[in-house]
Write a sequence for this structure.
């Protein structure tokens, strides 16, 4: 609150100071007028108060106080009987103090960054000096009878131009000025205006009164007071934040004017004497040297910028390694140079395994540290003639243009893989990092582009990941064929739903004891428009990976429930018949999934308890928290949950007890051996007993013969599905198949039960 009050007060003080100065100017009073004394007193009080409250740097306070004291003393002396030399000495002293203070200020605030704007400030200062020399100093020398007074006045103007140079340096810097810097900068600039007006008053051809040039000095007092009262004066030496738009145009216009005006002035005026000619020549020569230095500085800065941009475009900012663009250029050059030689350039595509876990658990700074260490190890692991690049987050590429056989390529990959055997040392401690490496080489006589070769290595890397990670895979054409086919399937899958290429088939679930259909499992099938049939084992994993399983699953759920409603209404099945629909982890992650299920039940009119959603054991292991939340909300709707393929995963009994499970489906792997292997039979018996203890139904999958069905019946498994009962059938065949299955005599004859 106090900070806001002081900030607002500083602006008020600046306005009051300007008002007092203007009143002084209008009244035409002398330096001891009430308005002048009020402005000076205001400055003294605020500078002192600001120093007590904010404790700004001593050098800033001392410079401001001493320069103002010297200036006020000079103005007071000019009213008394003091000599002209005393007055001029005091004015000169005020400017010299200001020069010393500004030198310290620029050095502390800008530091090394000042070098980039010093030439521009010098151009402004020198240009102004040439103008002052021609217009004020030289005429004063010609008119004056006292050489000492003239020297003092010329020295004052020279010091003022140095002040102008330092002030321009601050103005041209890319450091955003704080309010206190702005106030004090305005104070200095307005004071310079007063110095120039005072010098002009000594010429016979100018009619400038003391009131005219003392008015800017009083405005200076007001701005100085505001600068010291503002809270930012405490940290006035702290370099400000860089401006979003550096004052490039201001620099350009100011320096251009500072060059043109003196040159034009010198061209249209003649020297008075030898001294004038020497001063003009020296001033213009120094100005030319400064301009030349500025041009050289600009050329070098431009070259550095171009080099930086080139490096940024072609190298990785974290590791300093070549990026994808530069590595492709290296590979292209290696492939071209290897043409008609025995060399077969090798490209290794390296992906750090499970790097996302490092970022998620330890943070991105540790992840960057790991990537830097991995880059160092890769450089150390390969020959000096090989190139290492980082082309993406945790992906690196190595090029060896000298290999001559696939064996050498694999040996290179093995040496790289060995580099990951030792743990990497991070701020969080040692950790083991592994990598999957894809190897591709450029065969003799085969025209491969750099992009092709890198793509082959990338494809092989994914094969290494699929093989279990932390291993090497050598590219062959079959990999590319598989990847191409997968891409084709993935692309077509996005349009399969809107093209009506997908449909459901339904496998009946029967009551073993009664021989009646008690439910169906809906299974998705895909017949592509070109006549190809894509098996579910091929497109379902792709749908889950790409996320298209969410809209596909929603469609399947709605279609299955609508069909069940139709069969119930047509008396094809009993009103209590259930429908089982498989659900993927992606669907359980969808925040809209529960609403989708609820809407589907409402639209079909099927009671919630007749919908079974089947999930795999893996959902309970890898997605336990998310899955549990979604399944509990579904269960609260009345929907029942089944574990599909039970026994093939690694779910614990504690997880099984935690989840809202109402049905356990025994996997076909157990059913196949139930009649031949006593151990399998005992496992099935245990699963059934466990389900009974949980109050869950049991459904056996994959029944292929009547012996398996009989064995399951003897173990008190009451529901089953499989090819022996019925294959998955099209919608239009359901009525006839259900009729056949529910023929009691035929069922007993078939099963001999």
């Amino acid at each position: 609150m106090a900070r806001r009050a002081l900030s607002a007060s500083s602006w008020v003080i600046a306005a009051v100071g300007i008002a007092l100065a203007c009143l002084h100017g209008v009244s035409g009073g002398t330096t001891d007028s009430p308005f002048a004394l009020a402005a000076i007193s205001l400055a003294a009080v605020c500078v002192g108060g600001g120093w007590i409250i904010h404790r700004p740097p001593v050098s800033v306070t001392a410079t401001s106080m001493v320069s103002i004291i010297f200036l006020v003393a000079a103005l007071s002396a000019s009213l008394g009987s003091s000599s002209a030399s005393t007055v001029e000495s005091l004015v000169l002293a005020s400017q010299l103090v200001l020069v010393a203070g500004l030198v310290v200020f620029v050095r502390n605030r800008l530091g090394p960054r000042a070098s980039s704007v010093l030439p521009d400030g010098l151009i402004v200062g020198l240009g102004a000096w040439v103008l002052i020399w021609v217009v004020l100093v030289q005429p004063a020398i010609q008119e004056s009878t006292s050489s000492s007074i003239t020297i003092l006045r010329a020295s004052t103007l020279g010091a003022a131009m140095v002040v102008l140079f330092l002030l321009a340096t601050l103005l041209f810097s890319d450091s955003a000025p704080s309010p206190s810097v702005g106030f004090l900068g305005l104070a200095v600039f307005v004071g310079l205006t007063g110095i120039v007006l005072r010098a002009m008053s000594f010429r016979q051809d100018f009619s400038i009164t003391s009131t005219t040039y003392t008015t800017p000095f009083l405005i200076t007092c007001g701005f100085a007071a505001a600068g010291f009262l503002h809270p930012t004066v405490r940290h006035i030496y702290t370099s400000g934040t860089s401006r979003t738009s550096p004052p490039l145009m201001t620099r350009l216009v100011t320096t251009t004017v500072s060059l043109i005006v003196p040159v034009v002035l010198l061209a249209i005026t003649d020297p008075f004497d030898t001294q004038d000619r020497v001063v003009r020549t020296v001033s213009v020569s120094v100005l030319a040297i400064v301009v030349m230095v500025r041009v050289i500085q600009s050329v070098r800065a431009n070259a550095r910028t171009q080099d930086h941009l080139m490096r940024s475009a072609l190298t990785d900012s974290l590791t300093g390694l070549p990026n994808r663009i530069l590595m492709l250029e290296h590979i292209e050059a290696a492939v071209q140079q290897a043409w008609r030689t025995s060399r077969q350039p090798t490209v290794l595509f390296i992906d750090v395994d499970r790097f996302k876990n490092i970022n998620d658990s330890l943070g991105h700074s540790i992840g960057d540290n790991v990537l830097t260490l991995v880059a160092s190890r890769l450089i150390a692991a390969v020959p000096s003639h090989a190139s290492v690049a980082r082309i993406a987050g945790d992906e690196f590429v190595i090029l060896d243009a000298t290999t001559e056989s696939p064996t050498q390529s694999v040996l290179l990959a093995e040496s790289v893989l060995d580099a990951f055997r030792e743990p990497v040392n991070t701020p969080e401690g040692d950790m083991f990092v592994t990598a999957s490496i894809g190897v591709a080489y450029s065969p003799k006589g085969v025209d491969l582009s750099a992009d092709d070769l890198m793509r082959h290595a990338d494809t092989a890397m994914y094969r290494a990941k699929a093989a279990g990670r932390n291993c090497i895979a050598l590219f062959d054409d079959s990999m590319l064929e598989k990847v191409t086919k997968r891409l084709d399937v993935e692309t077509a899958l996005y349009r399969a739903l809107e093209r009506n290429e997908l449909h459901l088939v339904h496998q009946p679930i029967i009551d073993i004891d009664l021989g009646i259909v008690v439910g169906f499992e809906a299974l998705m099938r895909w017949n592509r428009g070109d006549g190809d049939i894509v098996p579910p084992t091929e497109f379902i994993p792709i749908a889950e990976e790409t996320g298209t399983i969410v809209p596909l699953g929603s469609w399947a759920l709605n279609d299955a429930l609508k069909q069940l409603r139709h069969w119930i209404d047509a008396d094809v099945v009993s009103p209590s018949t259930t429908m089982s629909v498989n659900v993927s982890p992606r669907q359980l992650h969808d925040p809209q999934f529960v609403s989708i299920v609820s809407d589907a039940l409402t639209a079909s009119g099927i009671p919630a308890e007749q919908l079974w959603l089947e999930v795999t054991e893996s959902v309970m292991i890898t997605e336990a928290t998310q899955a549990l939340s979604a399944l509990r909300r579904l269960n609260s709707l009345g929907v029942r949950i089944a574990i599909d393929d039970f026994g093939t995963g690694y779910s614990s009994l504690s997880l099984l007890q935690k989840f809202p499970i109402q049905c356990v489906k025994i996997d076909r792997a157990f059913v196949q051996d139930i009649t031949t292997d006593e151990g399998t039979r005992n496992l099935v018996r245990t699963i059934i007993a466990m389900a009974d203890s949980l109050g869950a139904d049991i459904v056996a999958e994959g029944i292929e013969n009547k012996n398996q069905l009989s064995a399951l019946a003897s173990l008190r498994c009451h529901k089953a599905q499989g090819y022996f009962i019925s294959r998955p059938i099209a919608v239009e065949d359901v009525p006839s198949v259900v009729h056949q299955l529910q023929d009691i005599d035929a069922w007993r004859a078939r099963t001999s039960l």
Remarks:
- The longest strand covers residues 516-527.
